[in-house]
């Protein structure tokens, strides 16, 4: 760098910083325009009466007040919570169990891992169509299979009592992504801990309970947070399977589906924006709760308690 | 420093513009720059089947080679995406010039987005007398005319002659004056057509309702309003009073109609429930084509969709008289509409006139399966029908127009989509067997509709 020319030049650190900003600029600009921009717009719309066709009209907090008096809002929230309460823990236990099995030294393990991961790369629409056929009481494969055991299969997607169960089963099938993350966590557990436990006379179950499980709590925590957010955003599969109606008899009217209906079917874009922000607050609250609780059950290697 | 930053952002701006240009924007060929392009948005209803797409492209070619100042292009949108795509185009300031074919329902769904074509009709001094009266009426609302009529889709029964023959039953009457053809009679015939896996029909005491292989009747492709419009209620297919302020979905006639349906599914077993519908949906078949439904109640549009390559003999018959001794056969209708926000509306109007002109309307209706809305082309269209669908009773199609539902089962009401969903939820309760008492279903649905209306009128004058 020539300091004697009298021309102002930048220090190395500042130049590096500028280049860093330049390189992250495409993402940052995209984030501002395509994420923050619509978010702020939707926040504004949530205080308006906006039907897409006419200009938004400011109505203050009316949409928020109306939301709490809307029976279908509570119904949709209930359906979503019901699904979350069943699908989330079940999915986590299922994925974790599969990951533990796939972590063992058996023949053809890579083939098994590929097989279990494969469903998660299939698009949601294709998955929904596929399971629509599987669940079909007459032409599907599930009910004839159950019949072999003397079980009369229900109308999975046509009976309001069974529709959520069907969606839970479907969600388990796509848990391959979680399995891979658990598997990575399981493989990161130091083997010397197992050796030490063995020396201390720990049984297989005790090694799992006191070594494997605590050491993989960070990945369980990670999957729990993402799973919670994903569950509350559940939309594609139910939209495809019910033609956007949330049937039968509103038994699958998920929160996001009702939000979509308000936006694109009833043209209440302002109200739908309100729903989006309320959902954001609900998910944020639950996520913060999980973060808070993590102090009690998530163990980070190298972490000193209390710090 | 400032100079460098400016250069850096200039580079990004240029790169963004290049990327945007590569992103599939509508680059207009230089050759067509002199012509005004009229984009016709297809997907609100029929028109998206591959055969129909080919036929529409040929129609566009015919128009484009005979017009110097306007060029048309059919924009085919998958039916399941029509709402989001149309609204995205509107909100993005890129409204299509024409939309259609639209049913009465999609006209109602997007009612506020349409241009009133009254001034265009007046400016051209267009004579509407050649159009069927009902076709014009279905496009005429107190404050606007939504478009020129394209076609009508009257409804009637499609019946499987082979199943009637096998059951030793007479075919449904084709005589529109035969008052013995009632909903009770239909029920009786349909039960005899319904078979279990042992070949017993639904009137047999040993009939096995858990293993039905053939149903007598189906009307599962319509919503609550369409299903109950024919039962003779004062407001026919409209769930509100004429001022749209009071819900009347719990009228005695609608309750009677819904109970007839509920009993048909769960007590008499001649109508398939939600399970049966789900099976057909997942197999991608219509209720009539597989040959396991004796009578299917549908519209003229089903000719194009479902009356090809049948493995059995079929014909059509009038819909029965309702318990009040009247015949109402709900009707669907199509038109083309111009969005209020479209550019080149005058050119769009010219295209609309061309599509519905006596010279072209038969070709257009052959694509979509509708009866041309013009009386003057009825004979020409009949000849086409005879070629396309030989052996059916064409009189049934044309005579059914006289029995249309008015107020129509798809016409606009406030909060159209929300009220449709509220009512169709009730229908879903019946089809799924969750609630079999029609009075309970319609009382609840009526209360929900009234609440929606009250909320609407609280903010609208």
Helix amount of chain A: 55-70%
Beta-sheet strand percentage of chain A?
under 5%
Give the strand tally of chain A: 2
Instruction: Give me the strand/helix succession of chain A.
Output: HEEHHHHHHHHHHHHH
Total number of strands of chain B: 12
The fourth-level CATH homologous superfamily of the largest domain in chain A is MetI-like
Pairing-aware structural class of the strands and helices of chain B? alpha+beta
Instruction: Tell the overall outline of chain A.
Output: globular
Please write the CATH class name of the largest domain in chain A. Answer: Mainly Alpha
Query: Approximately how much beta-strand content do the residues of chain B carry?
Result: 5-15%
* Spans where pLDDT lies below 50 across 5 or more residues of chain A: none
Would you tell me the structural class of the helices and strands of chain A?
mainly alpha
CATH topology title of the largest domain in chain A: MetI-like fold
Average pLDDT score of chain A: 90
Major sheet characteristics of chain B: 10 strands, mixed
Mean pLDDT of chain B: 90
Q: Label the overall shape of chain B.
A: globular
Distance between the termini of chain A: 44 Å
Q: Which features does this protein show?
A:
heterodimer; A: 307 residues; mainly alpha; MetI-like fold; 14 helices; globular; B: 461 residues; alpha+beta; two-stranded antiparallel sheet; 18 helices; 14% strand
Give structural notes.
The complex is a heterodimer of chains A (307) and B (461). With 307 residues, chain A is mainly alpha-helical. Chain A folds into two domains: 47 residues, no CATH class; 236 residues, MetI-like (MetI-like fold, Orthogonal Bundle), CATH 1.10.3720. Chain A is built from 14 helices and two strands. In chain A, strands 1-2 form a two-stranded antiparallel ribbon. In chain A, helix 3 crosses helix 13, helix 8 runs antiparallel to helix 11 and helix 13 packs antiparallel against helix 14. The longest helix of chain A is centred in the N-terminal third of the chain and has 34 residues. Chain B is of the alpha+beta class and 461 residues long. Helices cover 43% and strands 14% of the residues of chain B. Chain B has 18 helices and twelve strands. In chain B, helix 2 runs antiparallel to helix 14 and helix 17 runs antiparallel to helix 18. Chain B is globular. About 6% of the residues of chain B have low confidence. At the A-B interface, helix 1, helix 5 and helix 13 of A face helix 1, helix 3, helix 11 and helix 17 of B.
């Amino acid at each position: 760098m020539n300091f004697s020319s009298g021309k102002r030049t930048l220090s190395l650190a500042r130049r590096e910083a500028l280049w860093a900003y330049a390189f992250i600029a495409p993402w940052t600009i995209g984030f501002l325009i395509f994420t923050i921009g619509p978010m702020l717009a939707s926040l504004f719309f949530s205080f308006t009466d906006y039907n897409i066709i006419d200009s938004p009209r400011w109505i203050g907090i009316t949409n928020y007040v109306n939301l709490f008096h809307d029976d279908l809002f509570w119904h949709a929230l209930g359906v979503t919570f019901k699904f979350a309460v069943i699908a989330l823990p079940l999915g986590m236990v299922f994925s974790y169990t599969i990951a533990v099995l796939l972590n063992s030294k058996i023949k053809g393990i890579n083939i098994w891992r590929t097989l279990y991961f494969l469903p998660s790369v299939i698009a949601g629409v294709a998955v929904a169509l596929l399971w629509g056929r599987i669940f079909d009481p007459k032409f599907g494969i599930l009910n004839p299979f159950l019949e072999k055991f003397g079980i009369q299969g229900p109308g999975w997607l046509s009976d309001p009592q069974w529709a959520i169960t069907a969606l839970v089963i479907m969600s388990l099938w796509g848990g391959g992504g979680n399995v891979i993350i658990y598997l990575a966590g399981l493989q990161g557990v130091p083997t010397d801990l197992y050796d030490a436990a063995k020396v201390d006379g720990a049984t297989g179950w005790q090694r799992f309970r006191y070594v494997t499980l605590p050491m993989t709590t960070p990945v369980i925590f990670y999957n729990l947070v993402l799973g919670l957010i994903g569950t509350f955003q559940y939309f594609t599969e139910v939209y495809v399977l019910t033609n956007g109606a949330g049937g039968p008899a509103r038994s699958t009217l998920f929160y996001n589906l009702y939000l979509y209906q308000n936006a694109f079917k009833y043209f209440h874009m302002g109200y739908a924006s309100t729903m989006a922000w309320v959902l954001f607050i609900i998910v944020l609250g639950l996520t913060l709760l999980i973060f808070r609780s993590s102090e009690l059950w998530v163990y980070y290697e190298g972490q000193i308690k209390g710090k | 420093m400032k100079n460098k930053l400016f250069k850096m952002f200039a580079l990004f701006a240029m790169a963004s513009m290049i990327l945007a240009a590569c992103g599939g924007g509508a680059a207009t060929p230089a050759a067509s720059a002199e012509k005004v392009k009229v984009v016709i948005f297809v997907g609100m209803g029929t028109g998206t089947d591959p055969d129909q797409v080919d036929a529409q492209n040929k129609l566009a070619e015919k128009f484009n080679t005979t017009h110097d100042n306007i060029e048309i292009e059919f924009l085919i949108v998958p039916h399941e995406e029509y709402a989001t795509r149309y609204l995205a185009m509107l909100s993005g300031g890129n409204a299509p010039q024409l939309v259609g074919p639209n049913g009465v329902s999609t006209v109602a769904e997007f009612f506020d987005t349409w241009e009133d074509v009254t001034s265009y009709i007046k400016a051209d001094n267009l004579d509407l007398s050649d159009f069927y009266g009902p076709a014009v009426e279905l496009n005429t609302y107190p404050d606007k005319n939504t478009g020129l009529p394209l076609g009508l889709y009257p409804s009637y029964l499609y019946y499987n002659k082979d199943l009637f023959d096998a059951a030793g039953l007479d075919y449904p009457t084709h005589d529109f004056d035969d008052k013995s053809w009632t909903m009770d009679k239909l029920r009786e015939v349909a039960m005899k057509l319904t078979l279990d896996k042992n070949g017993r029909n639904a009137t047999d005491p040993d009939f096995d309702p858990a293993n039905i292989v053939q149903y007598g009747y189906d009307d599962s492709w319509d919503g609550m309003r369409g299903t109950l419009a024919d039962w003779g209620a004062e407001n026919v297919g409209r769930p509100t009073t004429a001022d749209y302020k009071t819900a009347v979905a719990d009228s005695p006639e609608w309750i009677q109609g819904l109970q007839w349906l509920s009993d048909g599914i769960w007590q008499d077993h001649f109508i398939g429930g939600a399970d049966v519908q789900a099976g057909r949906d997942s197999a991608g078949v219509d209720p009539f084509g597989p040959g396991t439904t004796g009578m299917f109640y549908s519209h003229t549009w089903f000719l194009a969709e479902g009356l090809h390559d049948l493995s059995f003999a079929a014909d059509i018959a009038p819909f029965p008289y309702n318990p009040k001794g009247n015949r109402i056969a709900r009707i669907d209708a199509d038109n083309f509409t111009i969005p209020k926000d479209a550019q080149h509306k005058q050119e769009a109007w010219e295209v609309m006139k061309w599509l519905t002109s006596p010279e072209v309307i038969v070709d257009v209706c052959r694509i979509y399966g509708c009866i041309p809305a013009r009386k003057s082309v009825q004979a020409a269209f009949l000849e086409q029908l005879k070629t396309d669908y030989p052996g059916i009773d064409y009189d049934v199609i044309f005579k059914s127009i006289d029995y249309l539902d008015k107020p129509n089962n798809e016409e606009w009401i406030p909060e159209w989509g929300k009220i449709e969903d509220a009512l169709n939820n009730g229908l879903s309760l019946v089809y799924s067997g969750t609630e079999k008492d029609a009075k309970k279903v319609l009382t609840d649905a009526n209360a929900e509709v009234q609440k929606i209306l009250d909320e609407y009128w609280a903010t609208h004058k």
